Amino acid sequence: MLELYHFRNSVCAQKVRMTLAEKGLDWRSREVNLFASEQYDPDYLRLNPKGYVPTLIHDGRAIRESTLICEYLDESFPAPPLMPPDAYGRVQARLWSKMVDEGLFAGVTVFSFAAMFRDRMKTQSPEDRERRYRNVGDPERRDRYRSLFEDGLDSPWVFRAVGAYEIAFRALEDALAGGDDWLAGGRFTLAEINLAPFVARLDYMTLLDLWLAGRPATAAWWQRVQARPSYRAEVPGALTDDEVAEMQTAGARIRPRIAEVRAEYLAWA
To answer: Most Cβ neighbours (<10 Å): which of 10, 44, 105, 194?
Structure first.
């Protein structure tokens, strides 16, 4: 039996759940409440020392890092395949995953923190906030959270997040402008799965149109992704009305500043 430690509205967990759905695999859910800091519970940290979700347990072994979990599932359960059959196609798919891991992951964290989690941290005592920074255990993550808490949308991390998304959407439009439906090997692959939750988070936060404007090929691709049963089940289908409303309200609140920062980035780039 596959067990997945996850959080319903975690973008990284959504990637893995989409992969499980595409494969038609049965799995046991182990919910980790990030808002209650359950990811820092000593028992969970023994499975995932970084305190990230998700973690997959298969045959008694823990597999960590969502991109690697998706590839592990594709290799362990090869039908239907979610990577191109040729080496070049697999490299192309992995390049999209690399873009997510090296840019969009931090980017979506910045937007979500600035829009929603910063207000929650304001209700904590200074001691509790410092404990949260230490629990992170990663100096870069600590610095990012501290900067966003103290400076909000004026944090330099916001400019970096906007830049990461701009680079990604430019690359998407270039890749799809030739008429291909999908990004790698002419088929739906882990490239789409890895990207989908990070595009969806912008959509829920009413920010996506800032990046889709003037990019018709990417807009059409996004419609195809949203039509996948795995996406419908594991992204919108896994969210409550309250969660959707919170993202929409919080996103609308930061939208004017994100649009300004994007204009600053475009002028700079």
So the answer is: 194
Burial of 268 (0-12, 13-18, 19+ CB in 10 A): exposed
Which residues of the chain carry a pLDDT beneath 50?
none
Helix H, strand E, coil C: the string for the chain is CEEEEECCCCHHHHHHHHHHHHHCCCEEEEECCHHHCHHHCHHHHHHCCCCCCCEEEECCEEEECHHHHHHHHHHHCCCCCCCCCCHHHHHHHHHHHHHHHHHHHHHHHHHHHHHHHHHHHHCCCHHHHHHHHHHHCCHHHHHHHHHHHHHHHHCHHHHHHHHHHHHHHHHHHHHHCCCCCCCECCECCHHHHHHHHHHHHHHHCCCHHHHHCCCHHHHHHHHHHHCCHHHHHHCHHHCCHHHHHHHHHHHHHHHHHHHHHHHHHHHHC
Structural domains of the chain, with CATH:
2-76 (3.40.30.10), 87-268 (1.20.1050.10)
pLDDT tens-digit profile of 94-109? 999 999 999 999 999 9
Residue 63: count other Cβ atoms within 10 Å of its Cβ.
Answer: 22
CA 34 vs. chain centroid, Å, equals 15
d(CA 118, CA 122): 6
pLDDT digits (tens, 9 = 90+) for 77-87: 999 999 999 99
